[in-house]
Each structure stands twice: as C-alpha cells, then as structure tokens.
C-alpha cells in the first residue's frame, strides 16, 4: 500500500506548495553569505539545529530545506534532512519562534518525545508532516489552533489515546495517523474525527481499535476519496452509511474481523482499488456483488472463502477486472 500512497502524498504536497512559488525562494549556503532570510530567523534556525545532536548533518543540506519570503525574509517553509536530528523536541525550542511557517516537515528524525503542544502556536501552518519520528503520548489538543491546516501526517510514530477535539480545522483535506497505537476512542461516534467534513484522504491503518465496530459516522465524511482502515481490529458489519461515500476511489478494510454483508461497499461505483483480504468471513462469498463499480482495477479478496460461481468464465466481476488486466484473487474457493 505504501507504494500506492506515495504518489498521492506527493500530489497533495505539490499542489499546496504552488502557493510558495511566486513569493519565496531557497535559502543559500550561509557560508557564502548569500542568505535572503532575515538574520533573526537565520539565528533561530541555527539555534534549533544546535538543540540536537546533529553531528550527522551536512551544513549545506540542513539549510537547503529552508524557504523564506522574498519581501519580509521570514521563514515560511522548513523541510529538514532525514535522520538529521536526535534527542527531545522541547517545548521551549526556538522552532516555535518561526511563527510565519506555512509548511513544516520534520519527518524521519529521532525525537522520541511527546509532540509539543507549542506546535499549535504555529497557527498559519498549512502543511505539517511529523511522520516516523518516534513521537510518543497523545496528539495535543492545541492542534485545534491550526485552523489553516490542509495536510497533516503523523504516521509511523508511537502515539496513543484518541483523536483530540478539533473545532477549527475546516480546511483539513489529508489526514494520516496510521501505524500508531491510537485507541478505540478515536472511533467513538462523537469523536471529533467525524467533524472533519472536508477530508478527502484518511488513513487510520494499523492502530489499536480492537473489537470496535465500524461507526456509521464514517458516512458523514462524504468528501472522502481514499479511506484505509486495514489492521485496526474492527469487527461487525460494514454500516449502511458507507453508501454515502460516493466519491471513494480507494478503500482498504483488510486484516479485520468483519461479519455480515458487504453490500454497502458494492454501491461505491467510483472505486478503482478495493482490499478485503483476511476478513475471516465464514461463508463463501459471491464476488459478483462487486460488479457494479465499473472503474474497479484491483480487488484483493485473498484468504477469504469465495463462491465457485464467482470464478466462472461469465462472472461479471472477473470480466470487469480482466478488461483492465489487474486482478488480485489469490483466494480459496468453496
């Protein structure tokens, strides 16, 4: 799945980074004395780097990820090199003085600390990427202050608890909190997650929602185009409200313990990717249920029980998939 997600992530980030093209430019190597950023901000960046063990950092590489406004000299975009920073990201870090940041990417570093609530002070952020940093603890409620946020990636950390109350994130289109240890509180019917009505991409895969049913409130996120819920310990039936997700193109529910009918999914006619493997469904399943989505390119129903009639030469689902030369049906028949 990660190979498929990468182009989607790049697309979202590239679309948003267009806003910087006319007003900012890359910082130069400070050794050459060609830095367009304001001296005060250069000092803050240097202090930030010195807060960590950055012995593995190349000085030039560190500043190559800094963009500044060409009028004010304020830092508006910061993307640090991967694996450059180690140790705790503290609440009094000089990073939080860069309050004109609109894009912040600290991914693939080794902070191994809680996510500082002070990130909520950077309240004009539009893109925030904190993936693969070893962050622990809960997502801070101060993230509600990030009212301009469009893209949030907290994946591949050690985060726990539920999703915090958010009231002002009406612009959030992309949310990835996969590969953490978030609890079933995240999926409570009144969870603020279901208040994010502008979401188009939501990845909750590989979290600890053990023995939770799929909330019908997912149907409220009617703008969703991508939804990943694999390996989350979900049980029970797919709610009928899933039929509200009429824009969905990619859906993954694999490695859960779902029961009952999957008919609500069959009504999602815009799907091109559907992963339903390892669902532990106890009865032979008729794949023809999914013959309606004419754009379906990939159907993964592996390690489930499939009705032999589904695999006949005149099967509607197989004819659809064969036309597109993609079918992932490494399954058992009964």
Automatic annotation (TrEMBL):
Entry keywords, A to Z: Cell membrane, Glycoprotein, Leucine-rich repeat, Membrane, Receptor, Repeat, Signal, Transmembrane, Transmembrane helix
Keyword Signal tagged: yes
Annotated membrane topology: Single-pass type I membrane protein
Residues in the signal sequence: 1-21
Entries under SUPFAM superfamilies matching the protein: L domain-like
Principal location class: membrane
Pfam families linked to this entry: LRR_14
A GO CC annotation given for this chain: plasma membrane
Record's subcellular location: Cell membrane
Domain Disease resistance R13L4/SHOC-2-like LRR per the UniProt entry, residue ranges: 78-178, 188-279
The keyword tRNA-binding appears for this protein: no
InterPro entries referenced in this protein's UniProt entry, alphabetically: Leu-rich_rpt, Leu-rich_rpt_typical-subtyp, LRR_dom_sf, LRR_R13L4/SHOC2-like, RLP23-like
Family membership: Belongs to the RLP family.
Descriptive protein name: Disease resistance R13L4/SHOC-2-like LRR domain-containing protein
Phylogenetic lineage: Eukaryota, Viridiplantae, Streptophyta, Embryophyta, Tracheophyta
